[in-house]
Amino acid sequence: MDKGQKFSIWYFFVAMIVVWLFAEYIYKPYAESRGEVPYSDFLADLETKTIENVDITENRITYTIKDGKSPDKRPIVGGVIFSNKKAKTPDNVKSVVRLTDPFLIERLASADIKFGGIAQRDTIIDLFMSIMLPLLPLLIIWYLIFRNMGGAGAGGIGGIFSFGRSRAKELQGEITGVHFSDIGGAGEAEVELREIIDFLKDPKRFDKFGAKLPRGVLLVGPPGTGKTLLAKATAGEAGVPFFFITGSSFVEMFVGVGAARVRDLFDQAKKKAPCIIFVDEIDAIGQSRLHSFNSNSEQENTLNQLLAEMDGFEDNNGVVIMGATNRPEILDQALMRPGRFDRQIQVVLPTEEGREEILKIHTKKVPLAPEIDLRAIAKVTPGFSGADLANIANEAALLAARRKADKVTTNDFDLAIERVVAGLQRKTPLTPEVRKKVAYHETGHALVACYLPGSDPVHKVSIIPTTKGALGYTMQMPTEDQYLVAESELKTRMAVMLGGRAAELLVFNEASTGASNDLERATETARRMVIEFGMSSALGPVRYAAPAMMYLSGATQIREDTGDATAETIDGEIKRLVTEAQDHALNILKEHEKVLHEVAETLQAKEVINNEEIQAFVNKEKETTI
Ligand code: ADP
Ligand code: MG
Ligand code: ZN
What we know:
Layout: H1 3-33, H2 39-47, E1 51-56, E2 60-65, E3 76-77, E4 80-81, E5 93-97, H3 104-111, E6 114-117, H4 124-148, H5 156-161, H6 187-201, H7 203-208, E7 216-220, H8 227-238, E8 242-246, H9 248-251, H10 257-271, E9 275-280, H11 283-286, H12 297-311, E10 319-325, E11 343-346, H13 352-362, H14 374-379, H15 386-402, H16 410-422, H17 432-451, E12 458-462, E13 473-476, H18 487-508, H19 516-531, H20 564-591, H21 593-606, E14 608-610, H22 611-625
Helix pairs in contact: 6-8, 10-12, 13-15, 15-16, 17-18, 17-21, 18-19, 18-20, 19-20, 21-22
The structure holds adenosine-5'-diphosphate (ADP), magnesium ion and zinc ion.
C-alpha cells in the first residue's frame, strides 16, 4: 500500500479540524459582531419600516436597511457569513442577537418585508464535520489504547500515523546473533533447517536451478523445546533479518488491525529480503474454524490475510516464513496446503545426550564444582524440555549464589531439579495428624512402586508442601525415554497411583480427600485403556473414543454414537480396572506392612527420603524373612 497516501488522508483530516476550529471560534464571532446593534434598534427599525429584508438564524437576526444599495448576497458557510467582497460589511447590514420574541414573525409580517431563515447546516464541510466530530473522541481512545498496547510506537501525532503498522519487533528485522551452537539436542531439526539457511544465504543460486523452496516451515513440538530458538538460529546462521510476531498478540486486536499488521509486516519484510518472518504460537490465529468455540472474526481476518500474503508471494523471493506451534492438530488445514506451511519439522523433547548438551550450553558461564557430572543430571531428567533444563541450571546457580559459594555443587543441582519439578518449597508446617496421613500416603505410592516389577524407580519422597498445593509428593524417574507403553505397565502405573489411597485405607481405615488427584489420573488411565487402546476383554479391540480433536476438556471422550449398553459396559470396565489396581496396591502394602510403618515414620522425622534409604528398609525386610 502506498504509504504517502495514508499520510495525506490523515493530514487532510487534521487540517479540516483546524479550519473548523478557526471558523467556529475566531472568525464567526468576529464576523457576527460587525454591525451589531441592540435589539431595541432592530425593533425601532421595524417600526419605521426602513428594513428591506431579514435573515433569521437560530440565534441571530441579520437585516438590511433600505437605502438604495442592493443587499449583498454573501455565501453562508456553517453559520458563518463569509463576505465574498472580502471587504468590511456595508453599513446598511446590521445584526442583532436573536431574543426569545414570540411576536417576531407577526412583527415582520406586519412590517411587510421579505424575511426568511437560513439553514445553518447546508454545506459539505458542515456535513463532513457533523459526521467526523462525534468520531473524534473515539479515534482518540482508539489511539490511546494502541499506544498502551505498546504497538503504535512514539506518542504524539506521529503515533497516529503508525496505525496498522505491524508489531514485529524492529521493522528492519532483528539480527538475532543466535547460532546452532546455542542449541543442544536438536540435531535432526538442524539438518532440515540447513537447506533453508543455504537458500537464504544465496537465493539466486536456487533460482538458477529452478528449484523451489518450501514457502513456509512449521516447527512443531512441545513447549520449551526450543522452537523459537531454532527459528532465531536459522536467521542467525544465515545472517538475515528476523521478523518476529506472536499469534496471540493478534487475538486482542480490534477489527481490521490484525490483518493490516500482517500486510504491513510482509511489505516491510519483502523490502529486506532475504529474511525470515517468524509467526510464533501460530495456533492462536490459525486455529481451525471447526475448533474455535467463540468464533473470533478478527482472528479469522488475520488468518485470511496471512494466507493471502503467502499465496501472493512469487517463488524464491527470498522471504521464508516460519511458524511454531505446540498444537498442530488444532491448526486450520488451510495453513498446511502446498505453497503455505508445506513443510513441518518436528522438534522433540531432548534425549539423554541432548539433555547433557543443553545443560552444557546453559552452564557455560557457571562455575561448576569439579565433581559435577552433567551426564548424571541428564540421566535423571527424562521428559524435561530444554527450557526446563535451562531453568534448572539457572536455579542451581542462584542457590549457589545465595549460599555465597564460589562453585555450583551437585547438591545445588539436586535442589534445583526438585524445585523445578515440584515448585518452590513452602515452609508452613502441617499439623502432626495431617503430616502422618501425608507420610503414609506418599509411602504407599513409593512402596507399591518399589515392589512392583517394571515400575519406574522412586527417586525421592517428600512431605514438604509445594507451592502448587500438593502436601507431599513421590518422584519417580523413568529409566528411559518411553515411546510405547504395554498394558501391564499401565496397570502397574495405576496401582502406584492408587498406592497412596490404599495405604490410607490400610492404616486409618478410611480414605481422605488427598487422593482425589490420584483417582482422577487412575480413572483417566483406565478410561483410555478401555476406549482408546482396546485393552478391555469385555469390549475387545474396538476403539470407542471420539477422535482426539473433539475433546472439549483434557479428558478422553466417548464417541457420540456409542450405544447405551456399550456405555454401561465401558463404565463397568473402567470401574473394574481401577478397583483391581487399588486391590493390587492394598495386597502389596498388607504384605509389607512393617516396611510401610518404618518408612512412614522415617519420612515424618526427615521430611524427605531418597531411593537408597527406602531400599535399605526393603532389603532389611528381605534378610529377616529368609
Ligand atoms: P519453544 O519456543 O519451543 O516453546 P523456546 O525456544 O522459547 O521454546 O525455549 C525457551 C528457552 O529454553 C530458550 O530460550 C532456551 O534458553 C531454552 N531452550 C529450549 N530448548 C533448548 C535447546 N534445545 N538448547 C538450548 N536451550 C534450549
Ligand atoms: Mg516459543
Ligand atoms: Zn497421592
